[in-house]
Fold this sequence. Notes:
Helix content: 55-70%
Structural class: alpha+beta
Keywords: Membrane, Transmembrane, Transmembrane helix
Number of strands: 5
Amino acid sequence: MADAQNSVSTAARPMRLKDALRQARIEAADRTGVVVDLRDAEIARLEILNEALDPLFAEIPAGVELFDRGITQGDTPRLWIDVVAHVVMGRDKRMYRFVQDTAYGRIVLAESHEAAKIADAVTSYVARRLVERERALSLPPVQAAPPPAAPRRNGLWTFVLGFVAGALALFALALFAALRIS
C-alpha cells in the first residue's frame, strides 16, 4: 500500500523548477552543438573556396584595390569578394550561393554544390570589374563648369527706380481722375 501511495504522490507532484531548468539547458546545449557544427561546416566550405580563389587574386595587378576578400564569421558566415559581392552557403549548408547587392536588392550571380563552378563565376565577376575599372580610367576627365557669374549689386537701384516709377504712375492716375471729375 505504501508503494502505491508513493508512486501516486510522485506522479501527481509537478517537476521541480530546478529540474526543469536543468533539462531545458541540456536541450539547448544539444541544439547549440548542432548549430555550431553546421556553422563550422559552413566556414570550412567557405575556406576551401577561398583557397581555390588564391591563384585568381594572385593574378590581379598590384595597385588595384577593388577587391577586399575575406571570410566574416557572423550569424551567417560569408566569403566577401568586394564590398558588394559575397559567397554564402545555401539553406542546405552544402550549396554555394554567389550574390551581389544592388540598389534594387540582392541578386544571385551563381549557385552550385561545387566550389570549382563558383570559383569560375567569381573569376568572371572579377574580370568584369577589372574591365569596368579600365574603362572608367580611360574616360576623359569631366570639364569643370564655369564659375557662376558675379552677383549683381544694383538691386537697390532697381528697387528705387521701380518705386519712383510706381509713385509717378499713381500721381498721374490721381491727377487724371481729378481732372475728369471737375
